[in-house]
Amino acid sequence: MMKQAFFSLALAGAVLSASPALAASDTVKMTLKDNCAVTIKLRPDLAPQHVERIETLAKQGFYDGIVFHRVIDGFMAQTGDPTGTGMGGSDLPDLPGEFTGEPFERGTVGMARSQDPNSANSQFFIMFEPAPHLNGSYTVFGQVTEGMECIDKIKRGGGANGMVSDPDKIIKMEVVEK
Q1: Domains held by the chain: number
Q2: How do residues 112-138 score in pLDDT, each as one tens digit?
Q3: Fewer CB atoms near the end CB (10 Å): N or C, the chain?
Q4: Can you give the chain as a three-state secondary structure string?
Q5: Is residue 149 part of a domain?
């Protein structure tokens, strides 16, 4: 019995020390037009794989210069597609959904995906207003804690799909080291 308890504790310790979510800085900073700074508190407690992906891509400089290709007034601003079309992603494999009961409120950051719930890759969106119809169907991985006024200034798209001509972009996105 003692051997089994020790093994369980040792295994738990190994899993915890190897967990990328526990090693995460839990914060990213985006610089937008006019040097406007946005701070996003990441939520590895809700979506450890998505947080790890965002941090990995940010550290690679993947998001630097990426446009907000789809922006719908009163709803959200979407970015993270290197093609700017809404159809692209990183070279990394898609992620399985990490759905929770966390609500989509103003400033919530969620992962974009196709109709396949396990297709999130690099695209994400930031909510202008609450959207309860997304709750439980999309992965929440962060919350804007500073700079929501910068998000409010992002150029809006036209039509029902919100595609933006001459869109605003992320100047720089970086992981804030602890």
Answers
A1: 1
A2: 999 999 999 999 999 999 999 999 999
A3: N
A4: CHHHHHHHHHHHHHHHHHCHHHHCCCEEEEEEHHHEEEEEEECCCCCHHHHHHHHHHHHCCCCCCCECCEEECCCEEEECCCCCCCCCCCCCCCECCCCCCCCCCCCEEEECCCCCCCCECCCEEEECCCCHHHCCCCCEEEEEEECHHHHHCCCCCECCCCECCCCCECCEEEECCC
A5: yes
